[in-house]
Specification:
single chain, about 120 residues, mainly alpha
């Protein structure tokens, strides 16, 4: 993006780059595809459930957080892979930390769904 772009033109460029990032993740990352399909299945369920608006927000927000963290993890992996394919402890550490972040986001989403469902139906 050109640094002199401002206002609406900058927004158009930023939106295009975001779309390209989502497209790249869909093409190259199986985990992203799985999590996005999970989101597309669970999001309508969250909207349909007879729970409060705040609980709907928590259910959907926890799913969005998983996708965000997966995108960031994929970005870290892409940068590490771009640097080189030889083993380096810091490269492994960076990838492991990204993976751990995804795991924590998945655990948070699971805990949120379990809590909301059990608190409303048991």
């Amino acid at each position: 993006m050109k640094s002199n772009q401002t206002g609406f033109v900058r927004l158009i460029y930023a939106t295009r780059y975001s779309w390209l990032g989502l497209k790249a993740a869909w093409i190259s990352e199986a985990a992203f595809r799985q999590e996005l399909v999970g989101f597309l299945v669970l999001m309508p369920l969250a909207l349909w459930l007879p729970v409060s608006g705040l609980e709907k927000l928590l259910l959907i927000g926890s799913l969005v957080a998983v996708i965000i963290v997966e995108l960031l993890n994929s970005a870290v992996e892409a940068v590490v892979d771009r640097i080189g394919d030889e083993f380096h402890p810091l490269s492994g550490q960076a990838k492991d930390m990204g993976s751990a972040a995804v795991l924590l986001a998945l655990l948070m989403a699971t805990a949120t769904w379990v809590y909301v469902l059990f608190s409303n139906y048991l």
